[in-house]
Amino acid sequence: MRRIRGGVSRLRLPRTRRGQRRAYQAVVAATVLALAPATWLNATAGPRVRTVADAPAAPVAIVFGAGLWDGKPSPYLAHRLDAAAALYRRGTVRAVLVTGDNSRHDYDEPDAMRGYLLHHGVPARKIVNDYAGFDTWDSCSRARRIFGVHRAVLVSQGFHIRRALALCTAAGIDSYGVGVAATRDVTWAYGGVREIFAAGKAAADALLRPDPQFLGPREKGVTEALR
């Protein structure tokens, strides 16, 4: 029940033990439902998280965008790209698909990612850009449906890699993930909290498998990079 005092609505706790027990059960049920998607991600994708050193071979590495600073990859994105370059140098992958946001002309994650990889020794012909990776589901769905990726090593920070694995698996990609280490700063804390809420959308995407925001025609970039 609510009591109004001075125009302010206050929530009153139940007075009876039965009412308190029901309120407690409702809180527990709501908490379980809220955490269920995150638990699902950890249970299903956890065993497929590896390191650069022990990631299984795959034709392609998929690197997810993580923001730009003054047109350059943010530190978090740079760490992902460093791992992808290392996978290429080790021969674990033969091409790199960089997927990110280019929804406006003054913000271009894929080209910035491409430039970084070029500077770190990955040949231009081995880098493929996806300019419509607006979120993780779109990146995974487009990798499969537009670029024809069937098997890949995914690269992201540890707090995001399980969601990426679950969604790419739902999109039809046999994938393992490299969870890149991250400094435990404010960004890391925000990313961890964000994943709890993002897990719900991920579960819905995995179940419903909607079309990405932008689908477009089939592209041959990955096929040509693997020749």
Automatic annotation (TrEMBL):
Domain DUF218: 60-182
Highest taxon, organism lineage: Bacteria
InterPro entries assigned: Cell_Envelope_Assoc (IPR051599), DUF218 (IPR003848)
A Pfam family assignment: DUF218
Protein name (record): ElyC/SanA/YdcF family protein
Organism: Streptomyces bugieae
Classification of source organism: Bacteria, Bacillati, Actinomycetota, Actinomycetes, Kitasatosporales
